[in-house]
Fold these 2 entries.
Entry 1:
Amino acid sequence: TQLLEQSPQFLSIQEGENLTVYCNSSSVFSSLQWYRQEPGEGPVLLVTVVTGGEVKKLKRLTFQFGDARKDSSLHITAAQPGDTGLYLCAGNPGTYKYIFGTGTRLKVLA
Amino acid sequence: NAGVTQTPKFRVLKTGQSMTLLCAQDMNHEYMYWYRQDPGMGLRLIHYSVGEGTTAKGEVPDGYNVSRLKKQNFLLGLESAAPSQTSVYFCASSLQGGTQYFGPGTRLTVL
């Protein structure tokens, strides 16, 4: 069974702080996605990374795919209360389906 | 354009009862998925479909059945509900395995 472990599981920080969330696996993925989910809603895609070593930026969010395509990180600069939510990574092992990570619940305090 | 919709939003069942969850998408997507989400476990794939009339098992298929009679609809059935099936169920669709668009979820409680 392929697993994607996310760390930390929970994170509570003050507005303006920086943070990094990690997504790790022993398996290789052809692509990896990051989603954000708010209470009572379904996950919404933030980004897809497909190349080992790839870095993508989305405003204050920076996503990196590991060189070996087994891990990824999400870095948020100057976090805001609007960043609060559940962050999920999802890896595609090369089939029609994605394997989802265990999730990181972020709370940004004003 | 409603995207992905799910019916019902909430449901409470007694052990042994049956029910069907309906997922509908209006984006003409080929692929559709059913996931369950439990605390600390992320999303786990139950069943998926790569086209009308086709279905396949995911990671946790036991106790569930699915049907994809029409391209826009994907039904998830529980024949005899158990307390272990208490969860939030999400449907998603995608165009040939790309970006997945999720519905708002169905919160199911089995007593």
Entry 2:
Amino acid sequence: DAKTTQPTSMDCAEGRAANLPCNHSTISGNEYVYWYRQIHSQGPQYIIHGLKNNETNEMASLIITEDRKSSTLILPHATLRDTAVYYCIVRVRGTSYGKLTFGQGTILTVHP
Amino acid sequence: DAGITQSPRYKITETGRQVTLMCHQTWSHSYMFWYRQDLGHGLRLIYYSAAADITDKGEVPDGYVVSRSKTENFPLTLESATRSQTSVYFCASGGRRGTYEQYFGPGTRLTVT
């Protein structure tokens, strides 16, 4: 599985867009990009995933560059409740089960 | 309401005791997972199940037993608890083979004294 690199921490003002980058320069053609987050003392929460097209759901948007070497998770209007650790994970689809391995992630702090 | 629940949320037990952590999901997801989360180790897979009556070991299965007689339930049993099993335990479920779209429960914080 491709290695991912994320900034250790980021800040965002409440109501503004939070843009969280992830570098995955060694990604291969059949690897998907997944994003999860973990709010303090809660279980991890699935956010979104994509292969090469941009994706959007009710929580966030995922923008993947054309060469697929990096991606950005966008929370369009961050709230205080979005303060969490955000994890970018790259995995090949088609394995028999989906064991998740989280790296260090990005600590996003949303401030008033 | 649909979702995934875990019980108990907090548990203190003594070394050597047997303890069972419960996990229940209402989505009829095929896959279910047990993870533990410790500082410095991140999330580690203990056991997983692809369907009722099908279970397999993850990274750290020693000292744990699982069963899955019904699709919706996936209990985790510590046969003889040890202090090293003090941790936060998360159950997760997922519906699609080969994907990493998993939905986690709120966790059980277990302390072994």
